[in-house]
Amino acid sequence: xxxxxxLRARDASQAIGAAARSSTAQxxxxxxxxxxxTTLLDLMKLDVEHPRQVIDINHLPLDKVExxxxxxxxxxxxxxxxxxxxxxxxxxxxxxxxxxxxxxASAQLRNMAxxxxxxxxxxxxxxxRDTHSAxxxxxxxxxxxxxxxxNRTLAIxxxxxxxxxxxxxxxxxxxxALEATVVIRGTQGERSVPIGEFFVLPGDTPxxxxxxxxxxxxxxVTLPALPKGARSFYLKLRDRASYExxxxxxxxxxxxxxxxxxxxxxxxxxxxxxxxxxxxAERALVGKPPDAATFAAAASAALANARAQxxxxxxxxxxxxxxxxxxxxxxxA
Length: 333
Ligand SMILES: Cc1cc2nc3c(=O)[nH]c(=O)nc-3n(C[C@H](O)[C@H](O)[C@H](O)COP(=O)(O)OP(=O)(O)OC[C@H]3O[C@@H](n4cnc5c(N)ncnc54)[C@H](O)[C@@H]3O)c2cc1C
Ligand code: SF4
Known about the structure:
Order of helices and strands: EHEHEEEHHHHHHEEHEEEEEHHH
Mean pLDDT: 98
Distance between the termini: 48 Å
Helix content: 25-40%
Number of strands: 12
Strand content: 15-25%
Strand order of the largest sheet: 4-5-8-6-7
Bound molecules: flavin-adenine dinucleotide, iron/sulfur cluster
Low-confidence stretches: none
Largest sheet: 5 strands, antiparallel
């Protein structure tokens, strides 16, 4: 690990002002906030990240989950993943979020990991973490070792010829299905970014993963209320039952009335370069009966544009089955 200066932020303005001195908030940022540290410190030890200044934001008052007047939720950026997963309002009104969080990492990691840090966790592509390998995300222009290499766990949707890495988060998939908004405070004040616009596809700049700018501090995330009677569910398929990232996952929200699906939100994990919302699947669901034929059609629509790499073609069928099962469970729970 390279030497760095450590600063404990007294307040948000001080943290933002210090971080704004970084030339970027993306890969290679010279200033980084640290929350739980479970992503950042690993990457610093591996020399994948080498900030010259690390700003501890743990003392900022961003650790509350609050009910909003319209039935939605406001989740502070420093709320720990375990506290959020076990929060009574989340379990009652946004079960898919609780399920996704509990499917991630381990109990010890969830006790440290925060909402803001989880949003910004980095890919688990092995070449990204190996500084001896070419990787456009870590070292722009160096090439992509995964395209002709070990790509079994990598993406089949949203890829480019420069990067095929997946967004690894479970929480982000649930937040996408719940249509969360990320609230960011930066040098120009506060802005609200719908989660569908927060992450950016790799294209020819895979080192840029989000719309975050130097100085930007995520302060909280808001969730709208779900329609009356909506049910949600998260299913994660992986190589082993715990402490493992998704090969395919699905977060779904369904509301049915008089035997017809009136509202559907579908997001998938483990398959996309960003948390993958599927408007195609949603269109295939709304107005149809909640039965096996509808769910199979939605799963086919969701994966219609999937593009397999040499070793991850199995994910197409796996993701279809994952989504079908999640929809069936949400409809019958
Ligand atoms: C062994 C292991 C297994 C794991 N398994 C899973 C899994 O199965 N599923 C899953 O989803 N995740 C998994 N994770 C990832 C884990 O969920 C993340 O590491 C964690 O959520 C990151 O949160 P943190 O608070 O520790 O982030 P940190 O490491 O503190 O920060 C991560 C990044 O976010 C930035 N940041 C943090 N907070 C803010 C803020 N408020 N505003 C702006 N920038 C901010 C930091 O500067 C840094 O760049 C695993 C991690 C490990 C180590
Ligand atoms: S897939 Fe992306 S993260 Fe992995 S080696 Fe290629 S450029 Fe790097």
